[in-house]
Inverse folding.
């Protein structure tokens, strides 16, 4: 199988301190498909405010924590998860 | 969103904005075979790292927080036959002394009831996507970051 590099935009939900870092609760991140979580995080870190993220923030796809190797699909719900502090 | 199931010992799990009715959760977990019922309450305190706190604001990734909260409680129930659990986590702006989380764990015997509540709160703090921002008496606010043993104070706030 052969992939052509294709542009896609991944909406990313932000919360708490990460929302503050970017000044928004949702980023639309332009990436090339296919896009793994690690590629998406690299793209986000390159945006204004991205330098305030830790090197490997937790990522959830469709409400589940995922590995950085996982590929993002076009309809996925993606979120960056700051260190949790419930209780 | 709330979950309930008769297959599991998890009887009720929800992320809520209204004050938590602890006696209702106790009633949900109670049953004729229960001989011990433990209640864990997390409450907002007035001091953190030596700073006077006036209140706390809880934020959740709501859909995921509801499902992770239920998953945490269900995993503990699955590992403890006979355990009956009802749990709620509150979000929004809370005052000093308000209950932020309530866990009721009931069992025939005290050991599993006490251990069950402890296991659920520890796991909840590790993986349920809920965050809290302390409001200080001097007007400042900061997100609590347990990985840094303190708080982060961002320069900007979202619109």
């Amino acid at each position: 199988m052969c992939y052509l590099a294709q542009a896609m935009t991944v909406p990313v939900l932000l919360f708490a301190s990460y929302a503050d870092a970017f000044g928004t609760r949702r980023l639309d991140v332009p990436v090339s498909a296919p896009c793994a979580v690690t590629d998406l995080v690299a793209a986000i870190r390159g945006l204004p405010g991205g330098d305030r993220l830790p090197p490997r923030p937790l990522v959830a796809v469709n409400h589940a924590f995922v590995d950085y190797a996982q590929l993002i699909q076009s309809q996925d719900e993606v979120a960056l998860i700051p260190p949790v502090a419930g209780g | 969103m709330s979950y309930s199931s008769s297959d599991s010992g998890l009887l009720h799990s929800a992320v809520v904005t209204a004050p938590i009715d602890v006696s209702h959760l106790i009633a949900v977990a109670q049953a004729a075979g229960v001989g011990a019922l433990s209640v864990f309450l997390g409450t907002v305190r007035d001091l953190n790292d030596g700073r006077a706190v006036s209140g706390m604001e809880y934020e959740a990734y709501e859909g995921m927080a509801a499902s992770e909260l239920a998953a945490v409680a269900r995993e503990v129930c699955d590992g403890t036959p006979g355990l009956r659990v009802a749990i709620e986590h509150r979000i929004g702006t809370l005052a000093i002394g308000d209950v932020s989380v309530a866990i009721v764990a009931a069992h025939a015997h005290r050991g599993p009831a006490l251990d069950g509540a402890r296991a659920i709160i520890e796991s909840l703090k590790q993986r349920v996507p809920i965050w809290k921002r302390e409001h200080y008496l001097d007007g400042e606010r900061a997100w609590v970051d347990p990985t840094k043993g303190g708080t982060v104070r961002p320069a900007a706030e979202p619109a």
